[in-house]
């Protein structure tokens, strides 16, 4: 019996990239909602980031049970 894979989110550093990352994460949530996924939890089992990406990753991970927010 195989175990399900783990989906990771890797966020890069760089000030402007952090703003783009937020937009991409919002778009992923909209795609997920439009696909009929009703789960509210974060789809990423692993979240890693560097610099500004680490800040975004921390914010996402701290609200992992309410990903849609």
β content, as a range?
5-15%
Basic shape: globular
Number of helices: 2
Helix content: 40-55%
Give the N-to-C terminal Cα separation: 35 Å
Helices and strands, in N-to-C order?
A: EHEH
Describe the protein in words.
There is one protein chain. With 69 residues, the protein is an alpha+beta fold. The protein is built from 2 helices and 2 strands; from the N terminus they run βαβα. The chain has a two-stranded parallel ribbon. Helix 1 (15-34) packs parallel to helix 2. The longest helix is centred in the middle third of the chain and has 20 residues, at 15-34. It is globular, with a radius of gyration of 13 Å. The protein starts with 7 loop residues before the first strand and ends in a 7-residue tail after the last helix. The model has no long low-confidence stretch (mean pLDDT 86).
Question: What secondary-structure arrangement, pairings included, does this model have?
Answer:
Layout: E1 8-11, H1 15-34, E2 46-49, H2 52-62
Parallel strand pairs: 1-2
Helix pairs in contact: 1-2
Produce a short descriptive summary.
The chain is an alpha+beta fold. It is built from two helices and two strands. The chain has helices at residues 15-34, 52-62, and strands at residues 8-11, 46-49.
